[in-house]
Structures are given as C-alpha cells and as structure tokens.
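Translate structure to sequence.
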C-alpha cells in the first residue's frame, strides 16, 4: 500500500496570515490543542513596536525574548471563536494533518498524509472552493519511513481519557510498572491511591485501551510501508537442524 503526502499553501482571512503579510520577515508556527492554540513567532533582527503590539493582541504571551538572534515569542489563545476549521476538513477527507501550520508572507503552509490519493484530490478541490491555494508537492510514499517530523497531535492521542485514567497511567509509568522486569504491582500502585485495587486497575486499563485506539491511525501509517510482517517471518522460521 502507498501513502500520499501533499504540501500546499492557502490564503484566506486569518489574523496570523495578515500579520505575516504585513511583516514578511516573520515566521509563525501554529499548533492546535484540544481547547487552545499554541503559537511560536520568530523574526530576525529587532522587531518594530507595532509588531510587538499586534503579538500582544493575539493571546496570552507565555514567553518573549529579543536578542542578537532576533525575536522569539510563544503565545496561547482560545479556539472557541474559530469556525469552519481547516483541520476538520482534513479529518473529513481521511487525511492526517502534520503540525505545525506555518504562516509566512501572507500564506498558510500545510502538509497532510493520506492512504488514498483520491482523498488528497478531494480535499484540495474542497479548499479551492473558498481559498486561494497553491499545491507545492504531492508525492507517493513507498518503501520508506514516515517523515520523522510527523508528530501525533497530543490532543488526539489523549482524546476521551479522563483525569482519573490519566492519573492512574502516570502513576504506573513513573513507578516502573511498564519496565521489564516490572518494578511494581497493581496492588502496590493501588495502595498509593485512595481507591480499591479493582477500581485503580479499571482506570488503568481504560486509559491503555483509549490511548492505543487513538494511536491506531498513526500506527498504521508507521507500519504500512514496512516490507513483510516480522512476526510472520519469525513464526515461519524453521529451527536449524542439529548435525549428528
């Protein structure tokens, strides 16, 4: 099976696009989380005061530095006002978004991966209906590794996992439960909490199940270009005949 990777850039009404157009040396990288955006802004040289004012209006500034290498700012803003998210369109056409979105000189740059080329074509046609779009590359990925830059969005991996399930999973991980050999037991883990062993185990198993289910699409992408099944190869390997 082949995978298809597409890179393209679009223009539409967006505060980040408008800022990058007014300040052509500015690069904006945008990550989507479950309920917010984290945005990194970088620019060489000393920034103009009007740029700093515009950045302050984007959201909560988490980090800001200006030195000989230029400007570096990290902000966080709410997603509640976003409508018709382009990320939702990626999901509609079964394409996997590769963060971050990069805004530069008035363009938004995106990369996606899909199992079927027809899904990529359908997505691009949809975007052409209400955005200026330029396709930068569209490539079949065969017999090679998935790009290491493709990171699974954290909010997708932990979707529907409750706080208690996350707490149970973190305790098990930090206590060495998943190491070989194990450094602790379910009973010992439960004794560190305020719940019964059966309740703790239920939280842990549900967390494991949800995370593995959410990671399924990324697992398929990582393994789909592999040649052969190593487990099948191992199972079919015949033991060597010992010489008499």
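Result:
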């Amino acid at each position: 099976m082949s995978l298809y990777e597409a890179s393209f850039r679009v223009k539409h009404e967006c505060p980040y696009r408008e800022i990058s157009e007014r300040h052509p040396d500015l690069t904006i990288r945008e990550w989507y989380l479950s309920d917010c955006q984290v945005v990194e802004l970088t620019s060489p040289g000393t920034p103009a005061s009007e740029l700093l004012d515009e950045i302050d209006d984007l959201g909560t500034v988490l980090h800001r530095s200006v030195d000989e290498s230029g400007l570096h700012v990290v902000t966080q803003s709410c997603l509640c006002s976003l409508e018709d998210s382009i990320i939702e369109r990626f999901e509609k056409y079964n394409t996997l978004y590769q963060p971050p979105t990069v805004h530069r000189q008035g363009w938004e740059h995106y990369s996606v991966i899909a199992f079927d080329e027809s899904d990529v074509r359908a997505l691009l046609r949809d975007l052409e209906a209400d955005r200026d779009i330029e396709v930068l590359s569209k490539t079949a990925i065969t017999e090679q590794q998935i790009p290491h830059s493709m990171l699974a969005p954290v909010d997708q991996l932990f979707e529907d996992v409750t706080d208690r399930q996350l707490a149970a999973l973190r305790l098990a991980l930090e206590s060495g439960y998943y190491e070989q050999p194990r450094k602790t037991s379910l009973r010992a883990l439960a004794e560190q909490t305020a719940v019964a062993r059966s309740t703790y185990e239920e939280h842990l198993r549900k967390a494991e199940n949800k995370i593995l289910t959410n990671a399924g699409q990324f697992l398929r992408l990582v393994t789909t270009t592999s040649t052969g099944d190593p487990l099948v190869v191992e199972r079919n390997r015949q033991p060597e005949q010992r010489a008499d």
